[in-house]
Specification:
Blueprint (H helix, E strand, L loop, with lengths): L2 H24 L2 H17 L8 H22 L34 H11 L1 H7 L4 H12 L4 H8 L3 H17 L3 H23 L2 H7 E9 L10 E4 L1 H10 L1 H4 L2 E6 L2 E6 L7 E7 L5 E7 L2 H6 L2 E3 L3
Parallel strand pairs: 1-6
Antiparallel strand pairs: 1-2, 3-4, 3-7, 4-5, 5-6
Helix pairs in contact: 1-2, 1-3, 2-3, 3-6, 3-7, 6-7, 6-8, 7-8, 9-10, 10-11
Length: 308
């Protein structure tokens, strides 16, 4: 066995753990895969033989890479929408699945990826995304992965006391929200939004009308309307007709958290173009739809894509 083979094998033993750390820090499976791949590249450039604790070294590196990605994300609020839910990973026939291939071999099947994503939970990801990058890293590494504050501080470039304070602030926010009621509300919103998206894709008028409140109001900004003027639609039948007319867009759209509520986004090529912010009533019907396409408004949204 060559040194490179040994290094690849050693890295694969830690890949699943590194991906779990990166996913909880970044909230996006594709970003987590990028962070893990970057960690592999850094390992190949390092003197691995001098590393006493390879697992600890790799965790520190993937955490630093993720922290840099979080900070970059804050500086670029207009970043493309990511896929916050895992997708199947399939290597081409005959291709290797080693660290340098870019494939995430150990978690390649959709079921195990879904287990990883579901173990965090949509509600918790919403709260984590409200933390500063340093707070999120301190909380995730210490409270979720039991990393000592001395090591957390090393990743952050701060003192252990400062790292402890960051985790404490994050902990107060995480434990303060979301409540079980909020989590249940997010689940209910997702069910309604998924049914609305499916009916729009299929042109199912009766299903759309059943999902809409009789007094539903749809508002669309000027950028969302071909005429270039804001528009308002009232009533279930009228809004349902509009949804069917936009069926082609619906077939390319996805469920997403839009400012902490479940909505729908159209993001061709990963670039957010249209967002539908939905208001779901206690009766489980859509009471209002805000169609957002203005670039300035889109940049101010906080979006995380969900599975259909």
């Amino acid at each position: 066995m060559t040194d490179s083979d040994w290094l690849a094998g050693a890295f694969e033993e830690h890949r699943e753990h590194l991906r779990a750390v990166a996913y909880r820090l970044l909230g996006s499976m594709s970003d987590a895969d990028d962070a893990v791949q970057d960690t592999w590249l850094r390992l190949t450039d390092a003197d691995a033989g001098a590393v006493e604790n390879l697992g600890g070294w790799l965790t520190t590196v993937v955490a630093r890479v993720s922290l840099n990605m979080l900070r970059s994300r804050r500086r670029r609020p207009d970043q493309p929408v990511g896929d916050s839910w895992p997708a199947p990973v399939e290597a081409p026939a005959g291709a290797g699945a080693g660290p340098g291939s870019g494939a995430a071999a150990p978690l390649g099947d959709p079921e195990s990826e879904a287990v990883l994503a579901d173990s965090v939970g949509v509600a918790l990801l919403v709260v984590l995304d409200t933390l500063t990058p340093a707070e999120r890293l301190a909380f995730v590494l210490h409270d979720m992965f039991a990393m000592p504050f001395t090591e957390v501080a090393d990743v952050l470039g701060r003192t252990p006391d400062a790292a402890r304070q960051l985790a404490s602030r994050a902990r107060r926010r995480v434990h303060g929200a979301p409540s079980p009621d909020h989590a249940a509300d997010v689940t209910r919103q997702r069910e309604v939004a998924a049914a609305f998206l499916a009916a729009s894709r299929g042109g199912d008028m009766s299903a759309l009308v059943a999902l809409l409140d009789s007094d539903v109001t749809l508002t669309a900004d000027a950028a969302a309307v071909p005429a270039g003027r804001p528009a308002v639609l009232h009533g279930a039948q009228t809004v349902a007709n509009g949804a069917i007319a936009a069926g082609a867009i619906a077939r390319e759209s996805q469920l997403a958290l839009v400012d902490e509520a479940v909505g729908i986004v159209f993001a061709p090529g990963g670039h957010l173009r249209i967002a539908l912010a939905l208001t779901v009533s206690d009766a489980g019907r859509i009471a209002a739809i805000d169609v957002i396409a203005d670039p300035d408004r889109l940049r101010r949204l906080r979006v995380a894509v969900l599975p259909d």
